[in-house]
Design goal:
Number of helices: 13
Strand content: under 5%
Radius of gyration: 21 Å
Distance between the termini: 44 Å
Order of helices and strands: HHHHHHHHHHHHH
Oligomer: single chain
């Protein structure tokens, strides 16, 4: 039943992320989407900060009312997610024209900026949906995202085990320490996006963040558990910052007419790393008695993503790379 419900959860949430990425393209030009993506992805990082200690505390409810701690965790955290989803449906609006918080001048400026961005994207070569899976740009995006997902999920699943090796910590204290990579990632993502949104090419920055991710996972194989926590924090910062750069590139690099299915395809296939990573990591740990083998593979995956990033469409037109007050309303 657990696996069946988890599968249905995956089906339900499959369209959320690519839908959100497409949603951003309809509200903001490319010169602002890095910061917007950083804020959006910061939600998952903030969830790690908040739910780390909360999850640890809920697990300590084990046996209360005759209910296992993990059941308390799923029930309470799941209920909160459902409530937030229902509330969001009443506040999200589909079109710029419906945004009550923007003045008429701001709506006009924002529509103009988005329209210019869409015109630039419409110049990309035409690709039919049937040939989408074989399009070189989609294949590169999918491969790069798959490698990034391997590292991201491994950090998520392995971090608590690493912290427990420190010893003498309660579940709540493990949750607090688990929040450290998320806090550092949030700060780094938004700070970096301020610079990269103005850069004519995001690829060098993407390559740099992927190298940081590879370096962090490799260093995690060395030293004490405390040193490993610092190394995993570095890897997490690199992984999250890479995602902040990757998705604006994916949004801008795909033909406007295939953006929706293209983003969905990249996200769905790339997220298979979320299945491969824990399975591979657990298998190597069981067979070798060490997590080092899995961390070496993650380092290699991040470096392969660097190669893929070299061939992604990263350069932008002068208009897309610059920002003017008329093209970017302050309140947008």
């Amino acid at each position: 039943m657990f696996y069946g419900l988890r599968f249905l959860l995956g089906v339900a949430e499959a369209g959320f992320f690519p839908g959100a990425m497409l949603y951003l393209t309809q509200w903001l030009p490319d010169s602002s989407r890095g910061r917007a993506t950083a804020i959006f992805l910061g939600g998952s990082a903030a969830a790690g900060v908040i739910t780390g200690p909360i999850t640890g505390a809920l697990l300590e409810l084990h046996g209360a009312g005759g209910i296992a701690g993990w059941r308390w965790m799923f029930a309470l955290e799941g209920t909160f997610s459902v409530i937030v989803g229902v509330i969001a449906g009443f506040f999200l609006v589909s079109r710029i024209e419906d945004a009550r918080w923007l003045s008429a001048e701001e709506k006009t400026a924002l529509r103009t900026a988005v329209a210019q961005d869409e015109t630039a994207r419409a110049r990309a070569p035409k690709v039919s949906r049937l040939r989408l899976m074989f399009h070189p740009q989609v294949a590169l995006l999918t491969g790069a995202f798959f490698s990034m997902t391997l590292t991201g999920y491994a950090i998520t699943f392995w971090l608590p085990s690493l912290i427990e090796e420190i010893g003498g910590l309660s579940s709540f204290e493990v949750g607090l320490l688990s929040a450290i990579p998320a806090v550092c990632s949030m700060i780094a993502m938004y700070t970096m996006s301020h610079f990269t949104d103005r850069a004519p090419d995001r690829r060098p920055y993407l390559a740099l963040t992927l190298v940081l991710s590879a370096l962090g996972t490799y260093l995690a194989t060395l030293g004490s558990p405390w040193f490993g926590l610092a190394a995993i924090t570095l890897a997490g910062v690199g992984s999250k910052c890479a995602a902040t750069l990757f998705w604006p590139m994916a949004q801008s690099g795909l033909d406007l007419r295939i953006a929706a299915p293209g983003l969905a395809l990249v996200n769905s296939i790339g997220n298979l790393g979320g299945f491969v990573s824990p399975f591979l990591f657990g298998y190597l740990k069981d067979t070798t008695g060490s997590t080092n083998g899995g961390l070496y593979i993650l380092s290699a995956a991040s470096l392969l993503a660097v190669v893929a990033a070299r061939f992604l469409r990263g350069a932008r037109t002068a208009g897309a790379a610059s920002t003017t007050p008329a093209a970017e309303p302050q309140k947008a």
